[in-house]
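User: My instructor asked us to take a sequence, write out its structure as tokens, and then describe one feature of it. I'm not sure where to start. Here is the sequence I was given:
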Amino acid sequence: MTDNILIFRTSIEKKQEIKKIEKLFTQYPQIHVWNVDFEDWEKILRIECQGITPTDILDALNTIDICATELE
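Assistant: Let's start with the prediction itself. The structure tokens for your sequence are:
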């Protein structure tokens, strides 16, 4: 089975927020690889995963006060 790639624009402003995301994503074994592009003004979050929906990701990020919008 191949990984899905989900891409989100985020409200991440500080690198400290990466620690919060890292802690959050350890609860989701469906997420295999993720990263945030701090060079991009939209602070793009890219996730390689299986069996998890964009809505699941958005809801999870919301719990740690990070807003995100899925990009097509």
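For the description part of your assignment, you could build on this observation: The mean pLDDT is 95. Try explaining in your own words what that tells you about the chain.
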